[in-house]
Amino acid sequence: MGRCGECRAWGSVAEAAPAATGGAGPRTVATAVSTPAVPIGQVSGEAAAFRSSGVPELDRVLGGGLVPGAALLLAGEPGVGKSTLLLEVAAQTARRRHRTLYVTGEESASQVRLRADRTGGVQDELYLAAETDLGAVLGQVEAVRPTLLVVDSVQTIGAADTDGVPGGVTQVKEVAAALIRVAKTRGITVVLVGHVTKDGSIAGPRVLEHLVDVVLHFEGDRGSRFRMVRAVKNRFGPVDEVGCFDLAADGITAVTDPTGLFVEHHAQRVPGTCVAVAMEGRRPLLAEVQALVTPSPAERPRRTTSGLDSSRVHMVLAVLQQHCGIRTNASDVFASTIGGARLLEPATDLALAVALASSHLGSAPPLGAVVLGEIGLAGEVRRVRDLSLRLAEAARQGFATAIVPASRGVGESGAPRQVDGMKVVEVGIVGEALRMLGIAGDRGRAHS
């Protein structure tokens, strides 16, 4: 045919051989294998051994370090410090005489050099390239032959033979697949920087998260220097670890003991404050909860929270009113954390209740006290996970007293005991916890 009967174009019909068919349709014919299968016990694991990234907190999250042939995706909001962190990882890797290639698609090479000068990241084995074409990136890999490849970011790289614009679904899939193929065949660790959407999820197709081996989220508050790296997916280690960092003008540094960032050391007793122990992954962190309860001139009092779950704040206020006689329905309530900490787990309910009751009644809890426990709607204090780890961290920080849920059951209390030199008092209901701290309301004393 010279002309197609459907599109009416000349010379567009091409001859093709018919597909091989069997009795039920097309069938795939077995071909020669590239590598024969062997028993799993005979497969060597040396080629996939961990190699330190030079950043201890990142190694903690990854489960030991970088794995040759692995593909990592680091996502975070703009300005949170993704490029600064990866430039530090690249510099530390190059300092260990491992050739590293840093490909930037968002900045020029001179701009990245300025950041490297400021953070001390200029190394002989660190190679820098500014490319936005996938073919050029692969050519740089062929020329440099690195052990670590950093691409900042995957949404800025485009493939010339693929439809769509850079950052689109088709382009991101093709670019990520090509870079991952290079990582697997050459044993290169590839780190991809990814953008996030307005709701905080990773931009681009969901298949991108399935293609890579590790997905990391870089989190932090714009008003704080504190940053966290959290593993969402990790084929080589745990997914319940977090790494803590301090982002400053001269670079980013690991924070191995971040507890002091979230606790304000008061010289005297202050109403409306209480210290809790939260779990970030498998790491216990002490954090201070502050509350301010003041009479409201408005018909509808305000409820403002920062770093806390607003729904749990409302629930704790209702429990205090119903079971402890602490009425705040005519008061403005402000509740927040110190240092940008986010306390979203139920284990901090009791500390929040103590802070709210303390502010409302004007009675401060004793210094050196830490409070743990989840609060139920019936006013009971429920047990929390990893209690021993939390108590050990509080004792290490020098706290003298801990108020914890009863170990024998909900609503029951036990005799005080000592844990690493710290007095541990078990309580069964909220009113009893307030009474032990000397800030109970009338109904709290009645329940106790």
UniProtKB/TrEMBL annotation:
> What family name appears in the similarity comment?
Belongs to the RecA family. RadA subfamily.
Q: What residues does the RecA family profile domain cover?
A: 47-196
Looking up InterPro entries in the UniProt record yields: AAA+_ATPase (IPR003593), DNA_repair_RadA (IPR004504), P-loop_NTPase (IPR027417), RecA_ATP-bd (IPR020588), Ribosomal_Su5_D2-typ_SF (IPR020568), Ribsml_uS5_D2-typ_fold_subgr (IPR014721)
Q: What does this protein do?
A: DNA-dependent ATPase involved in processing of recombination intermediates, plays a role in repairing DNA breaks. Stimulates the branch migration of RecA-mediated strand transfer reactions, allowing the 3' invading strand to extend heteroduplex DNA faster. Binds ssDNA in the presence of ADP but not other nucleotides, has ATPase activity that is stimulated by ssDNA and various branched DNA structures, but inhibited by SSB. Does not have RecA's homology-searching function.
Protein name, please? DNA repair protein RadA
Locate the motif RadA KNRFG motif.
233-237
Do the record's keywords include Transmembrane?
A: no
Which organism does this sequence originate in? Nocardioides lentus
Under Pfam families, the record lists: AAA_25
**Family annotation (Gene3D superfamilies):** 3.30.230.10, P-loop containing nucleotide triphosphate hydrolases (3.40.50.300)
Q: What is known of its domains?
A: The middle region has homology to RecA with ATPase motifs including the RadA KNRFG motif, while the C-terminus is homologous to Lon protease.
Show the segment(s) annotated as Lon-protease-like.
332-448
Binding residues annotated for ATP, in chain numbering: 76-83
* CDD domains, A to Z: RadA_SMS_N
The record's PROSITE patterns line, in alphabetical order, gives: RECA_2 (PS50162)
Any idea which UniProt keywords this protein has? Answer: ATP-binding, DNA damage, DNA repair, DNA-binding, Hydrolase, Metal-binding, Nucleotide-binding, Stress response, Zinc, Zinc-finger
Gene that this sequence comes from: radA
Keyword Magnesium set for record: no
